[in-house]
From TrEMBL:
Keywords tagged on the record: Signal
Transmembrane segments: none
Keyword Signal (UniProt): yes
Protein name per Swiss-Prot or TrEMBL: Transglutaminase family protein
Organism: Chitinophaga varians
Positions of the Transglutaminase-like domain: 147-250
Amino acid sequence: MKSLSVFLLLAGWSITAFAQQVPVIRATSKTVSIKDGPTFMKNTWTIEPETKPDIYRTSAKKVVFYTDVDSISVHVKPGQQQDFYILLNGKDSALTRVEFQPSRLEMLKKAKKYNYADKRELPAFTYLSPDDEALKRIRRELKLDSIAGSGNEISQMINLMHWVHDIIRHDGSSNNPAVRNAIGIIDVCNKEKRGVNCRMMATVLNECYLAMGFKSRFLTCMPKELKFDDCHVINMVYSTEKQKWVWMDPTFNAYVMNEKGEVLGPQEVRERLINGQTLIVNPDANWNRKNSAVKEQYLDNYMAKNLYRLESSAASGYDQETQQAGKWLTYVQLVPLDGLNQQNTKSENLKWNSYKTLITNNPDVFWAKP
């Protein structure tokens, strides 16, 4: 306890007095499990002594931290922060703080308001024709007609989504491959026996949909915070039979339905979450065929966080995000009125892709039918 003792002496505190004010627990491993309310999350937290304080935010009333040798129970109250130290290997002290924050669903409900009168100039969304030679190659080499089957539009969309989920393993920490198109991503996964993140999975499915003649975009779903460690990317694909966008998520093998079993699109899912209406996730939704994607965790928690801001490319096509000098990409982002970013941004890179992000508060523009 040398470093912590020195810290206390320099601060003019005795160890006894300090222990009465800020609890200390021990650890010999950097990974910590957390019970957040009724939810147990194994090895979900990493001890970082250099981060002071390292803040854990929760809407639960009680949180329990479990190190490999110790534990601490923290009662969470709005407006009050609860501090404790984790002493790693008897020498590195990590100040850890627990703070209350409203649930992600409550935060999403406060982001209900848009401005349907927002007339900022935006490019029309475009979709690459299935007659494009690169898309024809994808359709032929990946045998997409056989995978999609001969059923109706929705069944074909679901079959293609299931297939991408089954042939590609999700790995959120993996590096993006150099070639970012359907055939290239699948080849890298097979040759290197590795997975890719949700954006790459959605890229593969997007090109498969376009190759089959379906209008499709991959949709980046983000939280309110402008700096974040996690977001999610899914697909929105247009059904001419249903005259609507449909939610397809290859990472979780998931689509979403209402109480009648009708498939829903991202706009409908967001609105139903906010209004407390029925949402049903397909029973075979899962992550890497290991963990089921149940509605409470997948929608009420994870996607409630990530449906705050939504972004997609203005031009949906082939090999969109493969890095190339002089290449400009334009994205359109739908932001609620209380969003933290309300201005267009531009980032120019002389070596790789450059970006423009155009903001709108008008959902009618963002969800425009193709």
